[in-house]
């Protein structure tokens, strides 16, 4: 079945932003989903001295997966770069999908990966700074 992807999904899939790794990241998160076999790693570099609170100075990702997973990773990293860690935590997979002008319904779970990997990376950062780790809510993956 051919999936109907938006122009933005195709753009971020063909030309993904922020691909790569950060050496000695301040936060590292990994998420996977068995439905597509997608695996996503998020690397964060955090500036703790910013006046507005810790900000995400740089973010990179490595994703092995389908077009939706790669486009979601690319868009999600664009959306949290330069934001405070608290703002980045609040970014949802729905906001990522909306920024991509939508994902096919059976591919929404791929955007959940980006949110999960970012949450895990932020918790990794929090743990390293001796801060409380925030419980990650389990997403209900849509049954197809
Ligand atoms: Zn996928």
What does this protein look like?
The protein is α+β, with helices and mostly antiparallel strands. It has a single domain (13-128), classed as Sufe protein. Chain: A (Alpha-Beta Complex). 39% of the residues lie in helices and 19% in strands. It has helices spanning 7-14, 67-80, 85-90, 93-99, 108-128, and strands at residues 27-33, 38-47, 55-64. The protein has a three-stranded antiparallel beta sheet with strand order 1-2-3. A hairpin with a 7-residue loop joins strand 2 (38-47) and strand 3 (55-64). Helix 1 packs across helix 2 and helix 2 (67-80) crosses helix 5. It is globular and about 45 Å long. The model has no long low-confidence stretch (mean pLDDT 92). The structure holds zinc ion. Zinc ion is lined by residues 36, 38, 65-66, 68-69, 107, 110.
The set of bound ligands, ions and cofactors reads: zinc ion
Provide the residue-averaged pLDDT: 92
Radius of gyration, taken over Cα atoms and rounded to an integer in Å: 15 Å
Strand order of the largest sheet: 1-2-3
Helical residues, percent = 25-40%
Kindly, what is the distance between the CA atoms of the first and last residues, rounded to a whole number of angstroms?
14 Å
Weakly predicted, low-confidence segments: none
Output the helix-strand order. HEEEHHHH
Q: So what's the overall shape?
A: globular
Structural class: alpha+beta
